Amino acid sequence: MPERRSQVKVGLAQIDARLGDLEFNLAHHLEWIGQARAEGVELLLFPELSLTGYRLLHLTPRVAIHPATSPIVQRLCKAAPDMAVVVGCVEEDENGALYNSALLLAGDEITHVHRKLYLPTYGIFQEGRFFSEGRTLRMAKLFGNPLGILICEDFWHSDPAEKLARHGAKLIGIISAAPGRIGPDAMPPSQEAWESLTRASALLNTSWIVYCGRVGWEEGTFYTGGSHIVRPGGELLARAPYLEEHLLTAEIDLREADRLRWRLPILADERSDIEWQE
Amino acid sequence: MIRKDEVAGRLKLNEGLAVAALADFLRDGVENAGASGLVLGLSGGVDSALAGALAARAIGAERVHAFYLPYRSSEPQSAIDAAAVASRFGLELTTIDITPQVDAYFEHVDREADRVRRGNKMARERMSILFDQAKKHGALVTGTSNKSEILLGYTTVFGDNASSLNPIGDLYKQQVWQLARSLGIPETVVAKPPSADLWPGQTSEGELGFEYAMADEVLYLMFDQGLTADEVVDRGYPEVVVGRIVRLERAHRFKRRLMLIARLSGSAINLDREIPRD
User: Fold this and answer.
1) What is the ipTM of this complex?
2) Are A243 and B17 in contact (CB < 8 Å)?
3) Mean pLDDT of B43-71
4) I need a surface site. Which of A144, B38, B71, B202 has the fewest CB within 10 A?
5) Is residue A166 part of a domain?
6) Does residue B203 sit within a domain?
7) CA dist B241 to A273, B176, B232, B245, B255, Å?
8) Which structural domain range is residue B93 located in?
9) Which residues in chain A have their CB less than 8 angstroms from residue B57's CB?
10) According to the model, what pLDDT value does residue A2 have?
11) Which residue of A has its CA nearest to B169?
12) Is it the case that residue A1 has pLDDT exceeding 50?
C-alpha cells in the first residue's frame, strides 16, 4: 500500500447490473476495473448491490456471499491488486443474517465492510423485509487516509456522514441504487434531491462527497445515473450523464478539505452539550 | 399546497429524458426475455402510435411487427392514421380483419349481445392475435394502455390492457400527447378525439363524461399526491366529475391486479414469494 498522500484519482463506475446473476455481474465488474486501471484510477466505486442487482426480493438469499471466502471476491481482488475498489453485495454473516453491504478491496484483500445502516421500507422499497440492519459505523482507510463509505439511504440521515467527518474523513463515498423519476426539467427530480443532499453535506461536513449511482431497468423501475463528485464546500466538480453506463473520473486533493476547514471550522465548532429546554 | 393552476405544469415531462428512459425499458425487456422483437397493435390512435414510435427507437423498426386489426364498423380514418404512423416510423404494417371471427361467435352464440360485449370481444380478439403473432415471431407484446385509462378502468380486462410490457402505463393522457408530439407523430393522430373505435361515433370522453385534461389533473392529485376527493373539489374541480372519477377508480381496481390467487400454502405465488421476472 502506498504511503499516505493527499492526491487520489477517483473513478465512479456507473453501471447496470443483471438481477440475480453473480457471474455475469462479476465479468462486468472485471471489464470496468480494466478500463479504470487504463485510466489510472486509484479508488473505484461501484453502485449499491452492484454484484447482484438491487430489486432482489425473495432472490436475496440465493445471491448472498460470505465475503471472506467468496471466490467472486477473490477474483475481484486478484483483478485489482493495485487499486482500491468498493463493490456492493448481499453479505451473509456467520449466523445466517443478510446485509446490504459495501466491501472495500485493496491490496488483494477486504480491508473494510460497511453494512447498510438504514434500510428503506416504504413506497417501492422493501429492504427491511429481506436484510438485517448494520449496527456499526467505522472508518475505512485509503492510502493511509480516513475514508467514509455509506450506502444510499444512510445518506438520507445526516448523522452517519457527520460522524465520519467528525472522526476525520475528508472523503465520503456513497454507493447507491436509487430508483429514478422524470419530471419537467433537464435534471430528474430524483437527482435534484441527491445533489441537494450531497452538496449540503459537502458544505456542512466540509468534505469531498462522491456519489456513485447506477443505470438500467429492473421490473419497471429505472436508475438515473448522474453519479457525481462534490468539492468540500459544495461545488459540483463533475457529473456523469443520465441513463447510460459511464466511468466518471477525477483527480481529487484531500488537502482541499483541510484548507476549507481552516477557513470554515464548523466541524471543529460542533457542540454536543446543548440542552433542550421545554 | 398545490394550486389548481400548478397541476398542468407538474404533469409536463422532460421529453428527451422520458423518451430515452422508455425506449431503454423496451430494449431491456426484449433483451432480458431473449426475444426477437416486439409486436404491437396500431389502432390509428395516439397511444399505440407513441408505443410504436418508442418501440422503433428502442430496437429498430425492422424488429417491430405492427398490426392493424379492424372490425367492419371501425372508422375508415383509423386505417389511414395507422398507416400514416407505420410509414412515419418505418414499421411494417399487417392488416388482419377481425370481423369474421367476432361475428361468427355472436351469430352462433348470442345474436342479442349488446355493443359493450361486442366491443370487449373485439379487444380480446385483437389481444389473442397479437399474442399469437408474438409467439410466431418469438417477440413480446407491447402494451398501449395509458395511466389515465388504467386508473379509470377504461380498458377491456385481458383485452387491450393485456401485454408483455407496457412503456406508456405510467403516462397520463396529456403526457402521451406531449411525448407523441415531440416524436413527430402526425398531428391528425394526436389531435383527434380519443376513441376505442369499438362502434361508430364512440369517443372516450363522451363515454367517460369528462375530458382527459381535467381527469388527468384530478387523478394526479388523488393518486400521485394523495389528496382526498374533498380536497380536490376545494381546489376548484367540479364535484360531479371528481365523484365520478372516484367511483370509476374504485370499481376497476381489479383490472390492475390481475393474478388474484387464493392463498392456502404460506408460499403463494406473488403473495409470499415475490420473485422478480427480470
Assistant:
1) 0.90
2) yes
3) 98
4) A144
5) yes
6) yes
7) 57, 22, 11, 6, 22
8) 4-256
9) none
10) 47
11) A220
12) no
